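Protein in question reproduced for absentees:

***
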Amino acid sequence: MRELRKAKGLTLKQLAAATGLSIGYLSQLERQDADPSIRALNVIGKALGVGINWFFPDSQDAQNLEADFVVRADRRRALRFDSGLRDELLSPSLSGQLELVLTTFEPGASSGAELYSHKGEEAGFVVEGQLEVTIEDQVFLLGPGDTIQFTSDQPHRYRNPGPSPTRLIWAVTPPHY
């Protein structure tokens, strides 16, 4: 939970405000000094933008020594957004300095109408489809095999302007999820 909260750039105080849970209780959960209720996991997951299954490690992974280094294709943690985006975490954890994500944009899907910014740097490689990237007042149309890299403090947004899904691999530092 701590990794995800920090990757989202939230303090315990902000998470407490978003969930209605106390800072002390959230701190205990992060230190694994308390066992969360299903209700608590639901509200924390909602505030952090993940499903409750995010908090349950796969029992096979707990016994698997490669889990700290390898993410198998059928074991990726995934987030679906109402906007038509799906993010699959390719990194084994969020505790390092780098995050890899496979993002799928359905036709017309976007990161939103507004430009946004955050701390860090990101680079993307388009695997298939088209991606329109707006950085401040510049608009770039990318196709399969194209890459883009920029500092994330520049206001930006993404959109799939094409008729088919777009898939791309993002490298983000520091981890954003």
